[in-house]
Amino acid sequence: MNSHPLSELARYDREAIARYYWRRPWQILGRSLEVSFMLLRLVLGVVFDGWFDRTEKNIKKRAVQAREALTNLGPTFIKVGQALSTRPDLIRQDYLDELIALQDRLPAFPNKIAFQILEEDLDLTPGDMFAEISPEPIAAASLAQVYRARLYSGEEVALKVQRPNLIPTLTLDLFLIRLGAGLLSPYLPLNLGHDLQLVVDEFGAKLFEEIDYENEGRNAEQFAENFRDTPRVKVPSIYWRYTSRRILTLEWIQGYKLTEIERLQSVGIDPNEIVEIGVTSGLQQLFEFGFFHADPHPGNLFATAEGRMAYIDFGMMDQLDEKTKETLVDALVHLVNKDYSRLAEEFVRLGFLAEGTDIQPIVPALEDVLGDMLGKKVGDFNIKTVTDRFSELMFDYPFRVPAKFALIIRSVVTQEGLALSIDPNFKIVDIGYPYIAQRLLTGESPQLRRRLLDVLFKDGKFQWDRLENLLQIAQIDDSFDLLPTARLGLQYLLSEEGTFLREQLLLALTEDDRLQTEPVQRLWDLVKSDITTDRIWDEAVSTIVDFSAKRATSLAASWLPDAAISAFSGNGIR
Description:
Layout: H1 14-22, H2 25-51, H3 55-72, H4 75-84, H5 93-99, H6 111-122, H7 126-129, E1 130-133, E2 139-140, E3 144-151, E4 156-162, H8 166-184, H9 190-193, H10 196-210, H11 213-226, E5 233-234, E6 247-251, E7 255-257, H12 261-266, H13 271-289, E8 291-293, E9 301-304, E10 309-311, E11 317-319, H14 322-336, H15 340-350, H16 362-370, H17 383-393, H18 403-422, H19 428-442, H20 446-456, E12 457-458, E13 461-462, H21 464-474, H22 482-494, H23 499-509, H24 517-527, H25 533-559, H26 562-570
Parallel strand pairs: 5-10
Antiparallel strand pairs: 1-3, 2-3, 3-4, 4-6, 7-9, 8-11, 9-10, 12-13
Helix pairs in contact: 2-3, 3-4, 3-5, 8-10, 13-18, 13-19, 14-15, 14-20, 15-16, 19-21, 21-24, 22-25
C-alpha cells in the first residue's frame, strides 16, 4: 500500500506535489470534474438566489448544502471546512455557523487493511502486540480509525491506524485547491483573495503534521511535560514500541464525555470544576507555555473519575514564540485600559492588519465591538459574540486572520462552547479575568512587571481604581493568595528597577498637596480579610531578609576586586 511515490513525503511540499500531478493531467481532470460536479449545485443555487433576490431567504439552506458537499468530497474537504469555520475574514457568519457543525466521521475501513498497515510499519501482527483487541473500530474519522486493545503486560491502550492511501488523496486535493485559489484570487475582494495560496500552503503544512503520528506522540509528551505540576490535567502515555508515522498506540483514558452532565454528577464529578480546569489550562497553554491544543472538541476532552481533565489527540497543535505571547498580553492590557488606538497597533504587530494600514478609521470600530467588554455588560460577554461581531468588521476593514490565530480562535471558541453546553450561565470572564489579573500581579519577569505598570498608569498618573479592579478580579478565584503577591510587590519597590514606581506612588499619595488616604483605605478594606498579623510579620521578615541578601551580594560584587571575584568563581562559588 506504500507504492505511491508521494506516500514518502514527510512534510507538505507544494513543489514536489505540483511536479507529480502536472505530469498526470488525467488525474487532475478526473478529480476536478468530481469536485466541480459536487460544488456546482451549490454555486448555481447561490447565483440564482442573487438573481431572484432570495439570498437572505435561502442563506441557511445554502450553508447546509455547503456542509454536505464538503462532507461528501472526503477527508481533505472535511478538514478544509473545519479550517474555514475559524476564518471570519474569509467566510460570512451564516456559513461559519454551519461549518462549525461539520462532522469528522466516515465509515470504517476493513480490519484486514488496518492490520496490514500494522505489519508494514511495525513488522508485527495484532496477535504479536495485543492480548486483546476490539473486533471492530470503536471510532472512525476522516483520517484514521481507533481500536481498543490490551497489551500482554496488562495496560489498556488505544490503537490509532491511519486510513490507507491517505497521502495520495490529500495531495491531489491540496494541489487542486491551491490551483483554484491562484485562479480565483484576482477576482475576489481583497480580504478574500489576499495571500489565498499562502493560506492553502499553511493549511497543507498543518494537515501533514496532523497525519504524522510520531509527531503527534512528541506533541503529547511535550504537553504532558508542560502540565507536569498540574495534577488536575491528564495526558495519556505514548507506547513508542508500537508507534510509527501511520500507527499511534497510547494509554487508554477511561473517562466521561464532558457533555454527559447527569452521568458526571452521578459519579461525583462537579461539571463546573471540570469547566474551570479546561478554561484555566487553555489560558496556561496560550500565555505561559505558548504550546496549545488547537482542537479541544468534546471528542478530545474527557473527565476522569478522579475529577481530572484528560486531553487526547495531539495532532493539531501550534507554538507561540515569546514575542507573540508578549504581544498578546500587551493587547489584553490595552483592552483592559480601553486604549483602542494602541490595541489597533498590536493588531498590526500580530498580523491581523497589514503593515502601513491606516488605523485611525479602525479605532472607532474596535471601540464599538469591544467597548462593552469591561463595562456594564461584562457579564454578557463571550468570545463567540466578539468573533461574530468581528466577522462583520472583516468585510468593512482590511482585517485578516493569520493561520496561527485562526487555530487560537478555534481553540478558545470551542472551549467556550463546550463550557456553555455544560453550564448555560458560564462566563469566560469569570475565569479568564482572574487568571490574567493574577498573571500581572504575580509576574516575576521584567516583561510582566512592565505590563502591570502599563495597567496601573495612564498619562503618567497612578490609577488607584485599576489596582482595586485587578485585586477584586484576582480575588474571584478562591485559590489566589494576596501575601506572596504583596511580597513580590515590596521586593520590586525596594529594588533599583522600582525607583520610578516609588516616586510615582509618593506623588499619587500626596496629589493635590494633601495626603490621599481614601484610596489607601479602600485598598485596605479590600484586602484586610485575607491578612493576619502573623502572616504579615512572616512575609515582611522574609522580604527584608531576601532583599538584604541580594543587596549585600550586589554591594560585594561592586566592592571586591575583579581578581577576588574570579577566584571565588574559580572555586565554584556563585
